[in-house]
Design goal:
773 residues; 5% strand; two-stranded antiparallel ribbon; 9 strands; disordered C terminus
């Protein structure tokens, strides 16, 4: 039979129509509108499968020669790719384009190239398998085999995800998968270029091989007559090149393994309960401290979950988000894989802010279910993010929190922002603002554990029905009891303001252009940090063209004006923001604080103090309140110079620790009776892990007059943590008693520091660890 033109094929038209409907529907979601990463991901699932199955049906029916089957598969993939690209462009015209050139490149190197490969796969399968007359059974088998190619790519990616630290994927059909939902900034194009070089070599090799083959009447392949051997040489070289690129995958960034990451990091440390693989750029002293912290967390979590075990946990510690992203795919998102008993974090301050949270996932995995050792229906095969994240939030409250998860949930209840638990404890968790979902899940799980006990929590996490472990009560009845508990919690008004600003925000799926916006914000912030306000201003302006209501970018334009010496423009921008009725009151307060900074730069300390006091009346966060208190102390020339250098910056230059250290020293000399300058030096040395020097300056600060109270509180807390880092548990306990006795001390902050300091005693950790938890 003569093979028809592509657009005359019923199979091609049918699969094209199905693809069109799916892609058009997906494009109406804000995140998927236009040539974006998300649209490319959906197209990578839809288009290769359609190309493969449509081509397979036609080739099986018309039985062309191998080279024609090969070219027909390319034609099918190209046609479907153009169809998908047209849908992306139309959605872009409807919604607006985010960053079109990278989006187009990602589409071309991702699903478009994948559709070409899939079309060739479908034609090859049809020629190899269909040797008898068509039938319904054979057609069904053919469709399954044609679809198995794209499906196999997904299976390989899942196997790599399961058996290695990596969370990203390069795939011959769908293209690129970034991994973590909340990591919005990534650039896969360089990796995709080398990856698609392998795809091009594969197509070249298969095309050359097809040119040497012919289809005989008896249904067998034969070498085509009159063809030169050069085609075979070309095929062999091209396929060998493709195989070489596959083998070089870890070096090219296409995939990674435990061994490749360990080689890249280069260092290893064994503590009592943890194994650390860490970057060569990190100090062994700091990693020994992290190992001690890891041991203490494991012991505490085993107590929390009432576990007894001697299992070890492995931590991969990267020097930066960029190194972590390059090696395993997650940049700013910290990751745990409970089934591997591994966590993947980057080096941070001491105590590490997320170490306990990720370890909680691993420890909970000991009673989780399914292949991933997590909570969820279908035996854990379908994860329940609410239970998974809720148990980690409950088991690992932040040690520097101003309010407990229960307190924040109470604020959400009063503000009518609290989502129903039925939306939190299922996959719809991912459709909520992440701060809201994590906090509510953690508050409920913590409440549930306190009300029904650890054994009930473990059974629920392990798959038991709530009614079995909660005295016959289902989720709706438990939700009523949970709300009744929340109504008894007292939350001050300033916390309510903070809660609205924190939780009344769109989820990731409700944002437009998050990748382009966040990338522009990061790049603009870097330019501003490099004292290039002109370039930063241009980038922030581009950002606002995509997201006109982006408050941080609007604020940053005022800062750019200040760095360029344009005081009237900076003042005008901040005043407009402080009066904008569309902004939350805390965002207006941020603009007021920036106006105060502007007055401080101009030498108007009295006016700056008035503005800072207005912001203090609205601010709940204790660390932010302390910063405002320090700014208010900039009344003398020495204090003003130090505060500007450390916290504000000025015309042309931003804040600089190098300059601030000199100015703070001058402040100490000119006002020796006051301890604030010494505290600021000690605090910044603590952040830089210079324990001995930090201790000396903090002790000096605590021996002198140290007001206001927020600075005294922070000095005690920081000095206690330094003592803990140095292994001086006795000194840490003494400082903690003074910290607790501070007037107005919040329960959350007192309990948080108590938890941190409870990890100082090495002998206690060793004793408990030696007993198996």
């Amino acid at each position: 039979m003569t093979q028809p033109l592509l657009w005359h094929s019923r199979a091609q038209r049918g699969f094209a129509l199905g693809s069109l409907v799916l892609l058009v529907a997906a494009g109406f979601l804000p995140l998927f509108g236009g040539p974006t990463y998300e649209f490319a991901l959906v197209a990578g699932v839809v288009l290769p499968a359609s190309s493969s199955m449509a081509t397979a049906l036609d080739v099986a029916r018309w039985r062309p020669q191998p080279l024609r089957a090969f070219s027909y598969g390319l034609e099918s993939g190209l046609a479907l790719s153009l169809l998908g690209f047209g849908v992306a462009l139309l959605h872009g015209l409807r919604q607006g384009f985010c960053d079109p050139l990278p989006g187009v490149a990602l589409y071309g190197l991702g699903p478009a190239s994948g559709a070409l490969l899939a079309g060739v796969w479908g034609g090859s399968v049809a020629r190899l398998v269909m040797r008898g007359p068509p039938s319904r059974k054979r057609t069904a088998q053919l469709l399954v085999l044609a679809w198995s190619g794209p499906l196999l790519g997904i299976v390989v990616s899942l196997v790599r995800f399961y058996t290695s630290p990596m969370v990203f994927a390069f795939d011959p059909f769908f293209g690129y998968f970034a991994g973590p939902l909340y990591d919005t900034v990534f650039d896969p194009l360089r990796g995709l270029l080398t990856y698609r070089a392998g795809s091009a070599l594969t197509l070249l090799g298969l095309g050359a091989l097809s040119s040497r083959l012919s289809w005989r009447d008896d249904g067998r392949f034969a070498w085509a007559q009159g063809q030169r051997a050069s085609a075979l040489v070309l095929a062999a070289c091209a396929l060998a090149g493709s195989a070489a690129i596959t083998l070089l995958g870890p070096e090219l960034g296409h995939y990674s393994t435990s061994a490749s990451i360990q080689r890249a990091l280069g260092r290893r440390l064994e503590s009592q309960r943890c194994t650390l693989h860490y970057s060569k750029s990190l100090l062994e002293r700091d990693m020994a401290l992290l190992g001690r912290e890891c041991d203490a967390h494991v012991v505490e979590l085993e107590r929390y979950f009432e576990l007894r075990s001697s299992e070890r946990t492995t931590a991969y510690v990267f020097s930066s988000a960029d190194e972590k992203r390059a090696q395993m795919g997650a940049g700013n998102t910290q990751i745990a894989k409970p089934w591997r008993r591994e966590i993947y974090i980057q080096a941070d301050m001491y105590p590490h802010p997320v170490l306990r949270h990720e370890l909680a996932h691993v420890l909970a995995g000991r009673f989780g279910q399914g292949p991933f050792h997590v909570a969820g229906p279908v035996g854990g095969w379908l994860p329940d993010p609410g239970r998974i994240e809720g148990i980690a939030v409950a088991a690992a409250p932040r040690d520097d929190a101003d309010l407990s998860a229960l307190g924040w949930a109470k604020a959400m209840l009063d503000l009518k922002l609290l989502p129903p638990l039925s939306k939190v404890f299922r996959l719809s968790f991912l459709g909520e603002n992440s701060a809201t979902a994590y906090t509510v899940a953690g508050a409920f799980v913590g409440w549930f554990k306190e009300r029904y006990g650890t054994a009930a929590l473990r059974r629920w996490y392990a798959g038991a029905e709530l009614t079995e472990v909660a005295g016959g009560k289902g989720l709706l009845e438990l939700e009523r009891d949970f709300h009744a508990t929340l109504r008894q919690v007292q939350v001050e008004e300033r916390a309510m303001l903070a809660a609205r600003a924190r939780f009344d925000r769109p989820a990731i799926f409700g944002r437009s252009c998050p990748h382009a916006v966040d990338a522009l914000e990061g790049e603009a912030g870097a330019r501003l940090a490099e004292n290039d306000p002109k370039s930063a201003r241009e980038l922030f302006s581009k950002l606002l063209a995509l997201d006109p209501q982006h408050t941080r970018a609007r604020m940053a334009l005022g800062l750019c004006a200040l760095r360029q010496g344009q005081f009237p423009d900076a003042r005008r921008r901040y005043q407009e923001l402080s009066r904008d009725p569309a902004l939350h009151r805390l965002h207006q307060a941020t603009a007021l604080e920036s106006l105060g900074d502007l007055e401080l730069v101009a030498g108007n300390s009295t006016r700056a103090d008035e503005l800072y006091r207005a912001v203090l009346a609205l601010t709940f966060d204790e660390d932010h309140r302390r910063t405002l208190d320090v700014k208010r102390l900039a009344t003398s020339e020495a204090a003003r110079a130090a505060v500007l250098s450390l916290l504000v910056g000025g015309v042309t230059y931003g804040p600089s620790w190098d300059v601030a250290a000199i100015k703070l020293g001058q402040w100490i000399e000119r006002q020796p009776e006051r301890g604030v300058a010494a505290y600021l030096v000690g605090r910044n040395l603590y952040l830089r892990r210079r324990w001995q020097e930090a201790a000396r300056y903090l002790d000096l600060a605590l021996e002198r007059e140290l007001v206001p109270a927020s600075v005294q509180e922070s000095a005690l807390r920081t000095r206690a943590l330094v003592a803990c880092a140095e292994g001086d548990a006795r000194r840490a306990r003494e400082l903690y008693q003074r910290f607790r006795a501070q007037p107005g001390m919040s329960e959350a902050r007192s309990a948080g520091l108590g938890r941190s300091l409870g990890r100082c005693d090495r002998q206690e950790i060793a004793k408990v660890s030696g007993n198996g938890g």
